[in-house]
Fold this sequence. Notes:
- By secondary structure, this protein is an alpha+beta fold.
- 61% of the residues lie in helices and 14% in strands.
- A hairpin with a 3-residue loop joins strand 1 (7-14) and strand 2 (18-27).
Amino acid sequence: MVLSMTGYGKSVTQLTQKKITVEIRTLNSKNLDLNMRLSNAYKEKELPLRQLAAAHLSRGKVDFAIHVEKTGVDHTATLNTQVLESYIIQLRSVNGIHLPGSTQDGKLLEIASRFPDVFATEVENVSKEEFSAIEKTAIEALKAVSQYRKDEGETLFKEFILRIENISNLLNEVIAVDLTRLSDIRTRLEKAVSDIKEKVDENRFEQELIFYLEKYDITEEKVRLKNHLDYFKETMNSKESQGKKLGFISQEIGREINTIGSKANHAIMQQLVVQMKDELEKIKEQMLNVL
């Protein structure tokens, strides 16, 4: 299974006098980076909500927002008359305010009522029923995120399969080229020596030639690369998404491809290596987003 770290989920619950909205956005990150936004009235419930999010989202940069909107009559706000009177007295003392007669007090009252702390709101305790509703809404939003990640993961899965198959096909071409590559290199070296028109010790030349050709042998690299490609597909088909493990395997794939390129000494094989690197680079670009 392949899951994406990109996700989005939203859930809304309507209570008698409140509307609860939970909205979650996730992006790629090496670890779980959870940013939770909720009003001060619900800060005491932040820890259990964080634990809930962490249980569902193992990795990623997460923006977790909870908004509670009051849809009924609010009886918790009361007028703070002392603060209001203080604002009006201060406004009267400001030079330059000249309003006709009774209009002045009405205008000052209108201005002062807009200042902070004029209306005092009692701190409400979050009831078990309300928190239960918030928790249920959060779970629904988290499920939506998980489904979004799964859908995105299926797209990534198809992309990875395509790129791995392309590398596998290119490897088969490398294997075909390798059947004659060493003999071609040997022929070139023998021709180069003959062009010098100097007598050489045939036995010594043969020993040096064998040693030289062994340095260009890629038998082990071909076997390891095929094993890594098979292991990559096997890991993708596991029950859980394993982005970090797939990342490590892709690094090993790159190491074998680079080694084949450094040993190639053959134009056609080096072209095939370049194509394999291009396919692997496309895998690595998407790998950053795998859970």
